[in-house]
Amino acid sequence: MRTRITAVVLAAALTPLALTLSAPAAHAATPAVPYDFNGDGRTDLAIGAPGATVAGQARAGAVSVVYGSTIGPKTSTRTLLTQNTAGMPGAAEADDAFGSALASADLNTDGYADLLIGTPGEDGSDTNDGMVTIVWGTNSGLSGARSLFSFFSADYDRYGQALAAGDFDDDGDPDVAVGSTGPITVSLVDGPITRTSAANGGSGTRWSSSYGVRYLSSGDVTGDGHPRVVLHGRAAHDGAATALADMEIGNYTDWLQELPAGYVSAVGDIDGDGHDDIAVGNDRETSADPAGALGGRVTVVYGGPEGRDPGRAPLVLTQDSAGVPGAAETGDRFGSGVSLGDVDGDGYADLAIGAAGENSAAGAVTVLRGSASGLTTKGATSYTQNTAGVPGGSEQGDRFGERVTLTDHTGDGRADLSVSAPGENTGDGAVWSLRSTATGPTPTGSTSFGPATTGISTAGTPGYGTALTS
């Protein structure tokens, strides 16, 4: 496996192109946590619907932001974003796919998190150049926008198909990592980035195959306060390729640690040792991906001072693993979505796993607990639309669990569970939110809403929840 992925990297890697422009600006207020757009101490729920029709333009795309409250995401306090929103760069056009990827950080360090939105279908100097939009957080929520710097538009397409944000070059300012296709497949845009700042430089390189970098996540795996980036692409034989990168290093493809191959990932400290751990989801069958498994798999890689902890074997999970609810069956897509967050406030990150193909793609979600010894299947819980208290009912093709997120919408110190089902109502899509208690997420009092509730047209197949707060 190491030889295969290394070969992909060596065949594709280029010396990164680098730009150094103006000097960084002075630091401002204590940065907000990601996705807390109004600074109230509660994370907000951002929902991408890249298939949404806007002003008659099919698949132009839209994003709903539902603000957190003491009872969870509250649809009466929300913001609807499209490229036709006043002050937004560009305009809604067919196939732009605005909302395909989402990320957040307090880019201008003003105490309010900002939202990054990927629009990989945006046409620029050529078709599908792609674009990333920054929408600014304020004390009243999201307001005002600008486009993210795009240094190498002649050398990539679908810029913004994957996003992550954090201080990746370890200079004290938040940066943005962007996935794309073409000669450059991953770019680093240096911070600080403000409403009016000039570009501070950036770099780009090629990793993986012509499919490009399709998903990004990040976290402090080494425990040194400097986040690393998890890259997801495709290998030459069309299987997944996944690696951990240190983007502080000029040629960051020279510092890549191979990870178990998958299509999505989440990063968080499962065992409380100060090193974030990585959960990699691969929802494919072995017939579609050599690194897949019957029904899909999730692999947990524990972090250490040098990245991967060489003294701990990765934990491989399927629905046939002891203590995991259900059974591995063809097409379950276990690992379609993964998220790490502390659902019970015990100081250990817990893992939510989506299985969007379960029961003829009705879908299911499993939550496993973190502990001082690592992830455990003891006390695992499973949720579907047929779980008592969860709104709706499981139907073929809903894809409940396509994306999952564990984040604190109520401000009580426990991560709440939000789940998307982009196939709900023949492609309209919907999102569920389950509030967490001292014993974990509870279906009691859970809520659900679809695109119409937050102002998005249900014409066509908007795919509400295709992207979700990460």
Automatic annotation (TrEMBL):
Residues 1-28 form the signal peptide. Residues 375-470 are annotated as: Disordered. It holds the Pfam family FG-GAP. SUPFAM superfamilies: Integrin alpha N-terminal domain. InterPro entries: FG-GAP, Int_alpha_beta-p, Integrin_alpha_N. It comes from the Bacteria. Residues 375-388 have a biased composition (Polar residues). Keywords: Glycoprotein, Hydrolase, Repeat, Signal. Residues 396-415 have a biased composition (Basic and acidic residues). Gene3D superfamilies: Integrin alpha, N-terminal. Residues 436-455 have a biased composition (Low complexity). Transmembrane segments: none annotated. This is FG-GAP repeat-containing protein. It comes from Streptomyces lomondensis.
